């Protein structure tokens, strides 16, 4: 993206090394929902991680959803420990801009969150989302259980069918396990950014193509997701 070059993911050797501890403290509570950001979370809640472009607008989509207990934004899927926003934007961390969604499966299903994910962005654009260009804007789902993985892949296949019928291209979204891909929280000013700045930039926009739920899948419409543990110390 710099000097007109096509964005490329760095190799582990090329990536910035980062730091062992964060340079800031994450706010204790969500400015809209009032619940803790980093846990511990009540028993029975589940965690889902999504990357769909600029995380300011993406986070708002999820915190406005009934059954979502808390959300926060950060960096995931790359190599750099405790990265800064500037480092992620350099393209040298390999991370996406991601949203962590803590939700009550009794009130909102993982399938419903997947539907919101697909319909809130254009997943066919590779290393960009609209006018936002860079590897950090790529589309990704990081799963926390085999059930989430099966549901994410089934929804990808289902959405590809309706996108193709509507004349869109091939989905470039990656579905990867969250295990081994720590979620590094972003700086405090990024958390619930559009609540603090209602007229702030929001680059989130879908294709207008809708996805029916439940998807044709063998994992079941309810898609069990398990209990959410408190984040590990390395994720703070």
Structure in words:
One of its GO terms (molecular function) is peptide-methionine (S)-S-oxide reductase activity. This protein is α+β, with helices and mostly antiparallel strands. 20% of the residues lie in helices and 17% in strands. The protein is built from five helices and eight strands; from the N terminus they run βαβαβαβββαββα. The protein has helices at 55-63, 85-89, 110-119, 146-165, 193-196; strands at 46-52, 68-76, 96-103, 128-129, 132-133, 139-143, 174-177, 184-185. Strands 7-6-1-3-2-8 form a six-stranded mixed sheet, covered by helices on one side. The two termini are 30 Å apart.
Secondary structure topology:
Elements: E1 46-52, H1 55-63, E2 68-76, H2 85-89, E3 96-103, H3 110-119, E4 128-129, E5 132-133, E6 139-143, H4 146-165, E7 174-177, E8 184-185, H5 193-196
Parallel strand pairs: 6-7
Antiparallel strand pairs: 1-3, 1-6, 2-3, 2-8, 4-5
H/E element order: EHEHEHEEEHEEH
Helix proportion range: 10-25%
Class per helix and strand makeup: alpha+beta
Molecular shape: globular
């Amino acid at each position: 993206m710099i000097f007109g070059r096509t964005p490329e993911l760095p190799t582990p050797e090329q990536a910035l090394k980062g730091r062992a501890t964060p340079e800031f403290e994450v706010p204790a509570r969500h400015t809209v929902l009032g619940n803790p950001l980093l846990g511990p979370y009540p028993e029975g809640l589940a965690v889902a991680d999504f990357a769909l472009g600029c995380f300011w607008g993406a986070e708002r989509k999820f915190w406005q959803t009934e059954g979502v207990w808390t959300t926060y934004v950060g960096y995931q899927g790359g190599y750099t420990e405790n990265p800064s926003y500037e480092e992620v934007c350099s393209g040298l961390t390999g991370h996406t801009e991601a949203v962590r969604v803590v939700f009550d499966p009794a009130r909102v299903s993982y399938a419903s969150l997947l539907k919101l994910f697909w319909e809130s962005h254009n997943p066919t654009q590779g290393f960009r989302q609209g006018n936002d260009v860079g590897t950090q804007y790529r589309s990704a789902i990081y799963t926390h259980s085999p059930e989430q993985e099966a549901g994410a892949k089934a929804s990808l296949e289902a959405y590809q069918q309706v996108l193709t019928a509507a004349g869109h291209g091939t989905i470039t979204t990656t579905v990867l396990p969250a295990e081994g891909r720590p979620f590094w929280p972003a700086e405090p000013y990024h958390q619930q950014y559009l609540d603090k700045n209602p007229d702030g930039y929001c680059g989130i926009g879908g294709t207008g193509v809708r996805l029916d739920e439940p998807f044709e899948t063998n994992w079941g419409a309810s898609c069990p997701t398990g209990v959410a543990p408190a984040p590990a110390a390395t994720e703070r």
